[in-house]
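Tip: read the tokens left to right.
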């Protein structure tokens, strides 16, 4: 995007000092939102939230210092949107994992500032889908509302005249003080499919421990999940809707080091908690229907 494009975006959508567009890393277009002392940064590529600092002043999301900012490359960290498939596209395993939304440019639909929030709605142009079977079939809209909390919703619309099956996730990377100091009590007693064991089902009989690689698809999670970090005393509550699953991922030391865009020691300070509709639990959208997948993130220090 040129500086003229950024000027045009600001002319159409900037909101006083609370929402503005600029050239971010590698010249990629980003948007900065504020609500009082809370701040959020978002790249138009992927509608990717790369930073969220609530009024408490503590960064909530983990972003890899080694993330690669370049067109068509997914950013490592923050909140990538997985859509219109999560993980491998089983019918087309050669296609990129987690779909094409996270590497596509979104357009701005609208922005709003009022006493309640600073908000933006972005959309993925259905005519530009990189695969013909997806062209004009599905539209993704993503709305973000920054206030004392962070609210977001992915809306998938079936534009076609036949049922559409898709899977998706809000692949959220949370920053933590240390893997050994966090607890997620809501997972205890849930059933999960373990990707590290070819999706073998297990029950989470005691508290989850993150002392090695974890890659699990939890089934039927409760609406609210608490992430308790005893290292920094921060309690993050994540309320999600429209999801059949909650994916929990930490790559562990070896996989982190094998990924060029993942800081070598980053696995110690992050955990992904992802409201998702994954694997066989994707969603079937009837013609004209809309599915909403969202989450509300709230932190208390
Ligand atoms: O959500 C967990 C997961 O699917 C893992 O299996 C792991 O591969 C991770 O996402 C990251 O995927 P990415 O394509 O961003 O490298």
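Filled-in amino acids:
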């Amino acid at each position: 995007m040129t500086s003229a494009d950024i000027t045009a975006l600001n002319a159409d959508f900037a909101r006083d000092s609370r929402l503005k567009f600029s050239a971010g890393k590698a010249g990629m277009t980003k948007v900065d939102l504020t609500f009082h002392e809370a701040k959020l940064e978002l790249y138009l590529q992927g509608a990717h939230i790369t930073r969220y600092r609530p009024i408490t002043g503590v960064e909530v999301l983990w972003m890899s210092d080694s993330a690669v900012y370049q067109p068509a490359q997914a950013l490592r960290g923050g909140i990538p949107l997985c859509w219109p498939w999560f993980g491998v596209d089983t019918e087309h395993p050669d296609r990129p994992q987690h779909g094409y939304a996270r590497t596509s440019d979104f357009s701005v639909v609208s922005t709003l500032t009022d006493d309640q929030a600073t908000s933006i709605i972005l959309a993925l142009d259905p005519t530009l889908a990189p695969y013909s079977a997806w062209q004009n079939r599905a539209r993704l809209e993503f709305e973000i509302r920054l206030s004392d909390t962070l609210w977001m919703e992915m809306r998938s619309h079936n534009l076609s005249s036949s049922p559409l099956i898709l899977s998706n996730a809000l692949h959220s990377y949370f920053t933590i003080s240390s893997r050994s100091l966090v607890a997620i009590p809501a997972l205890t007693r849930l059933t999960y499919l373990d990707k590290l064991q070819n999706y073998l089902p297990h029950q989470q009989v005691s508290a989850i421990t993150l002392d090695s690689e974890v890659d699990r698809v939890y089934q039927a999670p409760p609406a609210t999940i608490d992430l308790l970090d005893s290292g920094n005393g921060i309690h993050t509550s994540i309320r999600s809707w429209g999801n059949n699953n909650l994916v929990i991922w930490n790559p562990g030391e070896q996989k982190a080091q094998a990924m060029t865009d993942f800081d070598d020691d980053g696995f110690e300070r992050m955990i992904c908690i992802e409201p998702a509709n994954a694997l066989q639990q994707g969603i079937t959208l009837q013609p004209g229907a809309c599915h909403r997948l969202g989450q509300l993130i709230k932190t208390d220090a």
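The pocket of 6-O-phosphono-beta-D-tagatofuranose is lined by residues 74, 87, 97-98, 171, 195, 215, 247, 249, 272, 274 (CB under 6 Å). Residues 3-300 form a domain with the Beta-galactosidase; Chain A, domain 5 fold (CATH 2.70.98.10).
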